[in-house]
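Protein in question quoted in full.
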Amino acid sequence: MTNSTKQFPEGFLWGGATAANQIEGGYHEGNKGLNIADVLPGGKERLRILTNPGFDFEIDHDKYSYPNHEAIDFYHRYKEDIALFAEMGFKAYRMSIAWSRIFPNGDELEPNEEGLDFYDRVFDELHKHGIEPVVTISHYEMPLTLVKQYGGWRSREVVPFFERYVKAIFARYKDKVKYWMTFNEINSALHFPIMSMGFSIEKEEDKYQSIFQAFHHQFVASSIAVKACHEMIPDARIGCMLLSAPVYSYDSKPENVMFALQEERIFNYFCGDVHVRGEYPAFAKRFFKEHNVNLDIHEGDLELIKEHTVDYIALSYYMSLTQVKDKSGFEITPGNLLEGVKNPFLKASDWGWEIDPEGLRITLNKLYDRYQLPLFVVENGLGAYDKVEEDGSINDDYRIDYLRSHIKAMGEAIEDGVDLMGYTSWGCIDVVSASTGEFSKRYGFIYVDKQDDGSGTLNRKKKKSFDWYKEVIASNGEKL
């Protein structure tokens, strides 16, 4: 433990984060319908398989494993897990509702009572322990029927289905949930639309036309959700959620600086500008022209987007990105659905993601300078291999070091003047990795005995970081 000289505000929302598709399991229980996550194969080839043209969204047990089907069985073990979160002192728990638990096919007229009841029980359990639920409405788990029959968010027809869904959950949980966000990492679709938009780019398809038309449909849907939330739950707050990664130029060569600026604007700020400012940014006009994007915008869309903007900005932060205009001869490094050139000043995780806590401070300052809205770090963590020692202990000092440095960076950003609401570390309990479908890529303070080959007891075990984070929360960030 070390002491921090930076003060976190009173009421700061310390906690942890997960997503339904990565922890719940019970994929066919409670009348739940299939969703995108249910057809994602496990293993390091997941992203390659999904980006191959012709991916058919079918389950093939002869070829692949599907770790999301059971995940870590939160569906049956939520009381045990929430008790552990409470023991750490969580003030907030960021989670998602599986859309296909509420509307199994996505296009039904009435919601599924079994699905609604499940989340009632989860929220009640959280409140019993004094934990505030922070709920993502759509987190990479679109109902499969909307993908296969409608083409995902390519189709305008999905908008009223989403509206029916959000109004159903707002009506049901208006007394239990006061923090909402619409689409998880909405901007990730620029590089990987399959999980958030429900389609992959086919060979003959115009990538940018499809993605930005789908963005427009999501912006309309998000504004409908914001409007409904403000009307149905006046004391609630609803935000957008961005995948944030500051983009550095590899050097001071002006053309590389400009390339990095263009990358940062279209990736980090395009979606934020629409959600927060309520209009398409000026730089989008040239981008659309150069990439032959012609949006089908219905009458009233732009007015709706302008009038119903978000209350706060939630973000994930794992890494920064370094770019050069001509990558020939450069080493390429992977990241959170992104890739750039190797930054010679940074170390990397077991999965090659570069570790840059100062980048979090930079990101928070840039976002707050641009938008002047409260920020909420709802994902940040280290995916690593954890070893269970002979005595049963798990000494994850590397995770403590990672989190400590990033929490310090948040403290510096607060000192810089950033209005920061809270911090929910990803995933506070081991989850199925979204990018690889692996259990061995562990993030949690809580170890789950589940292995990549499907073996394991699913028993929970505290890591060394569990007690460390407990003290961080108890001291409101003073003891790191």
Observations:
- The longest strand covers residues 237-244.
- The mean pLDDT is 94.
